[in-house]
Amino acid sequence: MMDKTLFDGDAVIIGGGLAGLTLALGLEQAGLTVAVVDTLPLEDRLAPEYDGRASALAYTSWRMFEALGVADHLRPHTERIEHILVCDGRPYGGSRPGGPGPHTLHFDRQEISDGPDGEPLGWMAENRHTRHALVKVLKERDRIMAIAPAKASGYEIFPDHGEVTLDSGDTLRGKLIIACDGKFSRTRAQAGVRSSGWNYGQKGVVATVRHEQPSQGVAYEYFLPGGPFAILPLPDNRASLVWTERDKVADALMASSDEVFQHELDNRFGDFLGKVEPVGPRFAYPLGLRYAERFCEERLAFVGDAARGIHPIAGQGFNLGIRDAAALAEVCGEAKRTGHDIGALTTLKRYEDWRKFDSATLAVGTDLFNRLFSNDIDPIRAVRGIGLSIVNKIPPARRFFMRQAGGETGDPPKLLKGEKLTAAGA
After folding, report:
1. Fewest C-beta atoms under 10 Å: which of 2, 242, 342, 418?
2. Where would I find the beta strands (DSSP E) of 43-117?
3. How many CA atoms lie within 13 A of 305 on its CB side?
4. DSSP 3-state assignment of 327?
C-alpha cells in the first residue's frame, strides 16, 4: 500500500497536549486549516489515573477559553481562585503543626476586580477535565483534523511548505509546522535549536486530597526547606497538591505506605481545613528549567514547553503555553488575512518577539524564587519572611504581581482579552 498525504493545509501541530489543542482552536478561529498529531487518542479520557495534575488557569487564559467556546464545557469542573496566600511554611515535625507561617503575602482578587461575581485571580481545573473540554470543542471544528494515535517521526522543510512524516510513512503538509511536543522536544532537537537549563534535583509529588472545611477559593503556597508546597482549591472540598521535595525524599514519598504518606502530609498541611486525606493515586514529575535559544525557524515555531519549561512554583507553565497560542494564532491569522506567508521567518519573528520577554521574565523569576525559598538557612529565612510582609503592605506592588501572573501586563493578544479572532475572508 502506498504512503499518502493525509493533510495539505495551513498548519501542522506536533503534540496534542493542552497547549497544542488550545493552539489548534486559536488557529482555526483565525481562519486556518489545522492538523494535530498526538501519540494518544483524542478521546474522552477522564480517569484520574490518566493525568492526576491540575492547572491554575490565569484570568486571561480563562478569557481565551471563553472566546474559543471551551469555558462553558469546563466551568462545572472548576473552582474560582479568590485569594492566594504565599508564605514561609511553619516548621513541621514533632509537636509543631504545619500550615501557613507568620509572614504572609496575600493576593485578593477584589483589588483588581470589583463586585462579588467579578473576575477571579484564576480558575482551578484538573487537566483531565480541561483536555475533555478542549477535545469536545475541537471535534466540532471542521477546519481541524486530529490524527491520533500517531507518532511524528520527523519533518522536512521545503521553500513553500513543510512536511511531517508519521511512523506509518504517511505525510502531513502545511505552510507552518508547530512543535508542541514538550520540554525535551524531538522537533526542536531535529531543527538543531539548542536549549539551556538545568535540573533542580527536585520532583513535584502531585496528589488530590479531600478536606473537611471549604477552602473558600483560597490557594496556598508554602515555602518549605525541600521546595514549595502548593494547596490549590478544587470543587467538592478537594485540593490539588503540588508537593516539591528533593529527589530522594520525593522517591521515598512515592514508595511509602498510605499511613506514612498521611503522616507526612499532616505534618506539612496542618489542620486549618480540618481533617485531610488523599483521594486517588500519587504522581511524581522531575523538575527543571529549559529555555530554547530561538522560538522559531523558517516554517517552524515552538510553543509551550517546547519553547521553555519552568518550575511550577507559580503555576505558570500551562498559562505560558496559552499565551504562546494566543500570540501565534493572532500573528498567523493576520498574515493569512493580508496575503502574507504564515510560515515565513518575518511572520514568525513577530511571534517570537512578542513572547520572549514574558517567557524570560517568568523563567528567571521562578528560578530565583525556588533557589531563595528552597532552604532552611535561618538568616535567609528571616529576611525573606520580612520581605513578604513588606510587599504585603504595598498595594501597588501586590496589584502589579497579580496582573503579571494574570498575563495582563504589556500588550496581551486579543484572545487573552476575550476578543475573538477574525477569520480570513470573514
Report:
1. 2
2. 54-58, 78-81, 83-89, 100-108
3. 22
4. helix
Q: For residue 422, is it within any domain? A: no
Residue with cell string 507559580: 314
Total of domains in the chain: 1
User: Is the predicted pLDDT of residue 94 greater than 50, yes or no?
Assistant: no
Mean pLDDT, all residues of the chain? 89
Burial of 248 from C-beta contacts in 10 A (0-12 / 13-18 / 19+): exposed
DSSP strand E in 82-140: where? 83-89, 100-108, 122-126
Specify whether the CB–CB gap between 139 and 57 falls below 8 A. Answer: no
Q: Is residue 424 in a domain? A: no
Alpha carbons 92 and 264: distance in angstroms, whole number: 9
pTM of the model: 0.92
Helix axes 59-68, 317-337, angle to 10 degrees: 50
User: Looking at the domain assignment, is residue 426 inside a domain?
Assistant: no
Residue 394, pLDDT above cutoff 80 = no
CATH number of the domain residue 286 falls in = 3.50.50.60
What does the alpha-carbon distance between residue 321 and residue 53 come to, in Å, rounded to a whole number? 16
Which pLDDT tens digit goes with each residue over 100-136?
A: 566 788 889 988 887 667 899 999 999 999 999 999 9
**Structural domain that includes position 181:** 5-417
DSSP 165-215: EETTS-EEEEEEEEE-S-TT-HHHHHHT--EEEEEEEEEEEEEEEEESS--
CA dist 290 and 306 (Å) reads 9
- Going by C-alpha positions, the residue among 295, 310, 301 that lies closest to residue 197 is 310
CA distance 84 to 42: 34
Q: How far is CA 251 from CA 202, 246, 256, 260, in A?
A: 10, 9, 9, 13
Whole-angstrom Cα distance, residue 418 to residue 90?
A: 40
- pLDDT digit string (tens) for 239-269? 999 999 999 999 999 999 999 999 999 988 8
Residue among 59, 12, 77 at smallest CA distance from 38? 12
Q: What is the pLDDT of residues 154-187, one digit of tens each?
A: 999 999 999 999 999 999 999 999 999 999 999 9
